[in-house]
Amino acid sequence: MLTTPPLSPLLEIVERLERAGIVCALGGSGLLAALDLVDAVRDWDLTADAPLERLLPLARGLRHETTGGDALHADAKLVLPDLSVEVIAQFAFHVPGGVVRIPTVVSGCWRDVPLASPEAWAVAYDLLGRPAKRDLLLDHLRSRGGDRETIVRLLAEPLPERTARWLRSL
Prior knowledge:
170 residues, two-stranded antiparallel ribbon
């Protein structure tokens, strides 16, 4: 049985983003759950290829916090703690070769929520040092095939060689 935070607040944020013309996609454990790879979601992680400044007006009327980059993250987050939703603005990571940008690519839909690319989130989990979640997505991709366009896009980033190697194998 799948356990998640309430879905309606997630749908509200997706609707706000879409009304503003911002493409978003569900990643993290929500993506894993939508693909039937896990049975529990702690919070909802959305990505959006928009700067934080463009996302902030969408939080009007809602308690929210923001976070900026750090030694690993080259992105920012709009956190809506009462809704268990985080919107990652311009998802990206610092790596020795520069900054790896993880594009918001919609790969499908689950319960009226756009789903992120499993390829992109496999890379993100690899860069986050979460091999168990990366491997769940890699097994899924190996059984169903990867999206060539997304893989090419990701390979254009300054990925660590170990990451690029398994990505090329999909």
